[in-house]
Amino acid sequence: MKPETDSKIFRKIKQLSNEKKFKIIELTKEKPLDIGSLSKAVKIAFNKCSNYCTQLEKEGLIEKTREGKNTLVRSKVSISEDSINFA
Fold it and tell me: How many structural domains compose the chain?
């Protein structure tokens, strides 16, 4: 692997090592959720959840879309017991 590829993978794994961010990925892999619902489910403040989602989006782990006043979040990562697949 090229060093820049290693760096990208490391940054993605680093994001997933945060328990709350990992939970956001898990909760949004089946269906998109709005940030308000995510913040309640993960038990963090709305602003913190929004910041986490921005960080996850920057690393390509989620995608955010606007629907009216809400921002919907959908995971781009497939997680199982044996593997993690980045889209």
Answer: 1
Amino acid symbol at 73: V
| Whole-number Å distance between alpha carbons of 49 and 33 | 12
Q: What is the largest CA-CA distance in the chain?
A: 42
- What CATH code is carried by the domain that includes residue 17? 1.10.10.10
39 near 46, Cβ under 8 Å? yes
CA 56 to chain centre: 4
pTM: 0.87
- Residue 82 lies in domain: 3-86
Contact 73, 32 (CB under 8 A): yes
The pLDDT tens digits for 40-51 are 999 999 999 999
